[in-house]
Design a protein that fits this description.
The termini are far apart. By secondary structure, this protein is mainly beta. Helices cover about 0% and strands about 55% of the residues. It contains no helices and eleven strands.
């Protein structure tokens, strides 16, 4: 079992950047699929980015088309943390961003259903 805690959200202007953090604690010695999702009011939860985390191995990363080229996912194993760097933010990026962890072997990581553990989320608001 793992626990996830997001931070780094805030109110920014269009074109600005934010770095969201996901701190992972608990049973971190095994591998996980760790994803970022976002949910805007009245909309379904949306996949943003994902990586396969296993200690000591290089991660694979995938991004949603909506953020590809503007988002970078990277890890700091010394802190058990995963970061989502978002650049050139747009008003349509406004949402609650959450990180989630599921089985390392999960296939359809675009689906929220494969994730067993979720953080509380952090609000990102992008103004014009």
């Amino acid at each position: 079992q793992v626990q996830l805690q997001e931070s780094g959200g805030g109110l920014v202007q269009a074109g600005d950047s934010l770095r969201l953090s996901c701190e992972i604690s608990g049973r971190t010695s095994i591998g996980y699929t760790v994803g970022w999702f976002r949910q805007a009011p009245g909309k379904a939860r949306e996949f943003v980015a994902v990586t396969k985390l296993i200690p000591g191995r290089t991660s694979t990363v995938d991004y949603a088309d909506a953020v590809k080229g503007r988002a970078t996912l990277f890890r700091d194993d010394s802190k058990n943390a995963l970061y989502l760097q978002m650049n050139s933010l747009k008003p349509e990026d406004s949402a609650v961003y959450s990180c989630a962890a599921g089985s390392y072997y999960s296939g359809n990581y675009y689906s929220p259903a494969i994730y067993d553990y979720w953080g509380q989320g952090t609000q990102v608001t992008v103004s014009l």
